[in-house]
Amino acid sequence: MATARVSYLGNLRTSCEHLASGTKILTDAPVDNQGKGEAFSPTDLVATSLASCMMTIMGIYCQTHNITFDSCEATVEKHMGSGPRRIEKIVVNMDLNGNHWDEQTRKKVIMAGRTCPVAITLEGNVELEFNYI
Length: 133
Known about the structure:
Blueprint: E1 4-10, E2 13-18, E3 24-28, H1 42-64, E4 73-81, E5 86-95, H2 103-114, H3 117-122, E6 127-132
Parallel strand pairs: 5-6
Antiparallel strand pairs: 1-2, 2-3, 4-5
Helix pairs in contact: 1-2
């Protein structure tokens, strides 16, 4: 069963529809690659999905282990390489303040996030750096 439908809109832009929900997002080529940079680029989505997937798995871990998970924010840095053009490195800076976890719980929740499907898929292909506040 298909997950998404992607349509080329012209001018280096696509519309991506999640078939189960009908939710749509646009992508645009980045300014440094002939685009307008008016929306996430496809590689931006890859990098951003890493943080989103990590948070989701952390949330599942917390629900499963009856741990309160009230707060999490992340910034994502994507570094591109050339020859061929590719994502070379992704840096995730994750702020977990506000959860009031002890150090052991914090480590377990972080480890759960590091085992998310996106991280496992990227590992070995893209340099990943994680910083936690």
